[in-house]
């Protein structure tokens, strides 16, 4: 079991209030324990979002396409602090200002690994600074690509099995935030 699987996550109730903690491994065992998480979208000047294909060694939904990066804050850690740390760990990207745009709660079982995601997922948005090129950690990320949100919706509709199950929901949260901009 990886060291990351032994990290603590913050268990929450349906309203996002902290109610305890558990290891990552324990929180993701069937039936899944609701815990705080975050999903980051980085966008470029053209309005495209950066997607990552999750590494083959991931314990949940390996090789599926997901948002730019995601993870779990430690108990008591802010989601923006944790997200900044994971952007640095996964993509070697530092100093991006992140704004929370909403929350998406979901539960999804991974048929390939038997693990369960049951997350109170804070959706964060930031812009990749000009001239910054992400350098993915191959133990976290198989590859990266840019895509417009509208093209991504069409791709997910055509082949949902290629995407992490939370991606449609967090993309919808992002879309709701973008209305009226």
TrEMBL record:
Catalytic residues in the record: 70, 119
CDD domains found in the cross-reference section: NUDIX_IPP_Isomerase
Residues holding Mg(2+): 90
Keyword field contains Methyltransferase: no
Keyword Metal-binding appears in the UniProt entry: yes
Organism lineage string: Bacteria, Bacillati, Actinomycetota, Actinomycetes, Micromonosporales
Pfam family of the protein (one): NUDIX
Principal localisation: cytoplasm
Subcellular location: Cytoplasm
Family label: Belongs to the IPP isomerase type 1 family.
Pathway linked to the protein: Isoprenoid biosynthesis; dimethylallyl diphosphate biosynthesis; dimethylallyl diphosphate from isopentenyl diphosphate: step 1/1
Listed name of the protein: Isopentenyl-diphosphate Delta-isomerase
Required cofactor names: Mg(2+); Mn(2+)
EC number: 5.3.3.2
UniProt enzyme class: isomerase
UniProt catalytic activity: isopentenyl diphosphate = dimethylallyl diphosphate
Function comment: Catalyzes the 1,3-allylic rearrangement of the homoallylic substrate isopentenyl (IPP) to its highly electrophilic allylic isomer, dimethylallyl diphosphate (DMAPP).
Cofactor detail note: Binds 1 Mg(2+) ion per subunit. The magnesium ion binds only when substrate is bound. Binds 1 Mn(2+) ion per subunit.
Keyword terms: Cytoplasm, Isomerase, Isoprene biosynthesis, Magnesium, Manganese, Metal-binding
């Amino acid at each position: 079991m990886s060291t990351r699987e032994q990290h603590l996550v913050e268990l929450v109730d349906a309203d996002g209030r902290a109610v305890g903690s558990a290891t990552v491994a324990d929180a993701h065992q069937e039936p899944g324990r609701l815990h705080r998480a975050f999903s980051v979208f980085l966008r470029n000047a053209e309005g495209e979002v950066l997607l990552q294909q999750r590494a083959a060694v991931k314990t949940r939904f390996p090789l599926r396409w997901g948002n730019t990066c995601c993870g779990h804050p430690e108990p008591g850690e802010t989601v923006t602090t944790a997200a900044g740390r994971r952007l640095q760990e996964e993509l070697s990207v530092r100093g991006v200002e992140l704004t929370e745009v909403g929350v998406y709660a979901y539960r999804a079982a991974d048929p390939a690994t038997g693990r369960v995601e049951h997350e109170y997922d804070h959706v964060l948005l930031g812009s990749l600074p000009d001239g910054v090129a992400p350098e993915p950690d191959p133990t976290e990320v198989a590859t990266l690509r840019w895509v417009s949100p509208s093209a991504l919706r069409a791709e997910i509709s055509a082949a949902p099995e290629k995407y992490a199950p939370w991606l449609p929901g967090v993309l919808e949260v992002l879309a709701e935030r973008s209305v009226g901009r």
